[in-house]
Every structure is written in structure tokens, then in C-alpha cells.
Design a protein that fits this description.
Radius of gyration: 40 Å
Largest sheet: 4 strands, antiparallel
Number of strands: 4
Shape: rod-shaped
Number of helices: 10
Distance between the termini: 55 Å
Helix content: 55-70%
CATH class of the largest domain: Alpha Beta
Length: 290
């Protein structure tokens, strides 16, 4: 009595054939799959030398979030555009010059240190450094008190100064009265209290005027933690990354193309699939082989 081995299921046979077909397809097309991506990688590396270089200059300044956001405000951008005559590069369009400049200026706030970091991009290290420097200066200029706000500050300073003068006159008068001893004990005690109050008022008004005067001054060196750096290396293009991406993308595309072609050729050999392909060609208006 002989044992008969049952036939393998149809799915297993199909799976084995499909795997062999894949191996055959890869073996037949290995040159295309190997040398094709390599050629594309070489071309991508060569073309990357034609791409414009980009350098990044970094500045770190003491600005809060609202102040830092002014870097993309129209008044600040217009100051930078005027400084570098950027409208010439965009055929005189101020709006296009602003849009292009925004893409070259990126600013972020560190949540821990509360410091603002500005990254300025340009085609040369010197241009990147100059752009970063001028951008911070434009922001500081925009932060200066001006217009009606400046007038209000000046008026407040004048009012405070008048109050200081009056208080100083009264203070001097009270001091003279105390020295002459022309006051009763109760009056003298009240006068001493007035001296203390007047001195406190003079100090308060003087300090307020100092703060107001400081707000009218332009902020300068104290703002900088790090001035605009002179970049030593370009930030773009990253040629090695471009080559790797080109090799992987072209390899995947060629692999897909090889299997699509193989599947198409296999389908042409089968009667049912051939009929379907004819219908597809007819629907697309392609020539149908009889």
C-alpha cells in the first residue's frame, strides 16, 4: 500500500510561482535597477552645484514675543527693503519684496530663556550677517515711542517736572520755618510730616520722569545677547541629502516600472486579460492590435 501525498492547494502553487516571477523579474532588470538610480544620483549631485547657496546668520536678542513679531510687520520690512533696495529684484513691487523678505527672516522665542532668536538667510555670509543686523535695528527703531504717544510722554514729563518744582519750593519754605523756630510744637510736628511727604513725592516724580525719558531713547547694545553671526558654512543646498533622496526615489520608481511592465506583458499573454486591455485601449482612444 503506497501513501499518496495530497496535491498542494492552488493558492500555494500560485504563491510559489509569483515569488519565482519576482525573482526572475529582478534578475532580468538588475542592471536598470542598479545603474539607473546611480546615474540619477550623479545627475542630482551635479545639478546641486547649480542651485544657489544659502547661508544663515543667527542673532539672539532680548525681545518679548510681541516685540519679536514686529520683524514681519510692514513698517519694519519696508525699512529693510529701503536699506537694501530689494524692490529692484522684484520689478518694483513692494508687496512682492515684502513676501520675499519674510521668507528670509525667521524668528522664534525660547520658552525657558525668553530670548528671541532671529535667523537671516542670504546667498553670501556677508549678506546674511548684514540682513540680520539691519533687521534687528529696524525692529528697535519701530519700538521707539513716536507720534502722539511721544507727545503724551513729553507732556507727562513736563507736568511731573512742574510738580517737582512746586514741591521743592514748598519743601524749602518748610525747612526755613523749622530753622527759625517760628512754629508751635504741633505745627512743627506737622511740618516734619510734610517734609517726609514732599521728599517722597519728589523722589517718585523724578523716578517716573527718568523712566519716561528712557522710553524715548532707542534701545541699543543692552538688547543683544549675540549679534548677527557671520556663517562659515552654507545651510543649503545639502548635496549629500539631495543625492540620497534622488537615488531612493528613482530606485523605487524604476522598481515599480519594472513590475508594471512585467504585469502588463503577463496580462497580454492571457486571453481574458488581453480582452480587458483591448477595452482599456479603446476607451482611451489608443490603437488596438487585432
Amino acid at each position: 500500500m503506497t501513501d499518496t501525498q495530497p496535491p498542494l492547494p492552488h493558492a500555494c502553487v500560485e504563491g510559489e510561482i509569483s515569488l519565482l516571477d519576482i525573482l526572475v523579474t529582478l534578475a532580468e532588470s538588475w542592471k536598470l535597477l542598479v545603474f539607473g538610480p546611480l546615474l540619477v544620483g550623479v545627475l542630482a549631485g551635479g545639478l546641486s552645484f547649480l542651485w544657489p547657496n544659502t547661508y544663515e546668520s543667527v542673532s539672539i536678542v532680548r525681545l518679548n514675543e510681541e516685540e519679536a513679531a514686529l520683524i514681519h510687520a510692514a513698517p519694519v520690512l519696508d525699512l529693510i527693503i529701503a536699506k537694501f533696495d530689494l524692490v529692484i529684484d522684484v520689478n518694483g513691487s513692494q508687496e512682492d519684496a515684502r513676501s520675499g523678505l519674510k521668507s528670509k527672516l525667521a524668528i522664534s522665542i525660547d520658552k525657558k530663556t525668553k530670548l528671541a532668536t532671529l535667523t537671516a538667510k542670504a546667498s553670501t555670509p556677508e549678506q546674511a550677517q548684514a540682513l540680520g543686523t539691519v533687521a534687528i535695528e529696524a525692529v528697535l527703531q519701530e519700538l521707539r515711542v513716536k507720534g502722539h504717544e511721544k507727545e503724551a510722554v513729553l507732556n507727562t514729563i513736563a507736568i511731573n517736572q512742574h510738580a517737582i518744582s512746586v514741591a521743592e519750593d514748598v519743601l524749602e519754605s518748610v525747612k526755613k520755618s523749622i530753622k527759625r523756630g517760628a512754629m508751635a510744637d504741633l505745627q512743627q510736628e506737622s511740618a516734619i510730616k510734610n517734609l517726609t511727604s514732599l521728599n517722597a513725592e519728589i523722589v517718585s516724580k523724578t523716578q517716573a520722569n527718568a523712566n519716561l525719558a528712557r522710553s524715548l531713547e532707542a534701545r541699543g547694545e543692552e538688547v543683544y545677547v549675540q549679534k548677527a553671526s557671520l556663517p562659515a558654512r552654507r545651510s543649503a543646498p545639502k548635496r549629500s541629502l539631495a543625492v540620497i533622496v534622488a537615488v531612493l526615489a528613482s530606485g523605487f520608481a524604476l522598481l515599480l516600472w519594472v513590475f508594471v511592465c512585467q504585469a502588463w506583458q503577463q496580462a497580454m499573454k492571457e486571453s481574458d486579460s488581453a480582452e480587458k486591455i483591448k477595452h482599456i485601449k479603446a476607451a482611451l482612444g489608443m490603437r488596438v492590435d487585432v
